[in-house]
Amino acid sequence: MRLSLALILxxxxxxxxxxxxxxxVSGEVLKGAVIVERGPEQFVIQHPIxxxxxxxTTDIKSIDGxxxxxxxxxxxxxxxxxxxxxxxxxxxxxxxPTPISQPQAAADGSPPAxxxxxxxxxxxxxxxxxxxxxxxxxxxxxxxxxxxxxxxxGIVTEGATDSTNFILRYRTTRTDPRxxxxxxxxxxxxxxxxxxxxxxxxxxxxxxWKDEGSLWNVFAQGRFENAEFQAWDQRITASGGLGYxxxxxxxxxxxxxxxxxxxxxxxxxxxxxxxxGSDEDDVVPEGLVGFDLDLRLSEDQRITGNxxxxxxxxxxxxxxxxxxxxxxxxxDKLKGVSLRLGVQxxxxxxxxxxxxxxxxxxxxxxxxxx
Length: 370
Known about the structure:
The protein is mainly β.
């Protein structure tokens, strides 16, 4: 009876193990993971693809949406049979080893018989299974996904003048502990009484490399632009340099996880630009000074922005400035959809007299995250 109760208890505890979703601080989610063991510095899990692995507690953001400190892992069941009972057969169906009878003394007190000599048939003895090699902690090979956004908006007015403004933007970002890469494409079209006043397309890439625990990083960026109503028809710019984390304040969200509250990164470097269809078609060296801002106002509101100052290294006193600022508000009833209010400003001190030095575009767009 005690053996049966032990077996039933073992089956119940095994059935109680359930799959969990483990979110890592890098943003990845291990789905279908079964927590096998929890230690002071790591969790041991069984994953349907990665197998049995150990993950440091500091690398885990949450388990089933809860902080790691609230996760309770039941101890493994004690399957040792009660004294005097026989061991249950293994789970794989192989028969249990037959116990070897010890020689007993005869009833008249004479010594027990000697075991059979060589050549006589001996009962087969099953060797104990070899001990499993000690498990070692490994870093799971994770595929870091690209996180993308599709942004669009437009305004049409009719009255004394008819005007149209249309904006389409796409951005995709891949982030891991050592590198962040972002690719973006933007298109803007404006008309007034049927005449185009702005028609501009650009595509750019930005990449940043950093070491864990260091405030410094190395970055590179490049952009191709095609535009009407500028002093050039096409323009290619490329630059790079060093970044330094000026500020990084943390906060705790509603789930108990630590998140960034405000991040401010300063940048300095240099690069070059090449214009086509302009009076100046030589490669122009430029310096670079700027910063990136990321401010988390609340769980569903965030302000992001950046500005770049490019002094002309060939002509003293000449420069250009590019700035972008966005206020993004998540829509509660539409998961993955946000409202974004933004402004883009560009200043070029070398613009011809018939083209304004400033180019400012305000926007209100809908953002789909995927």
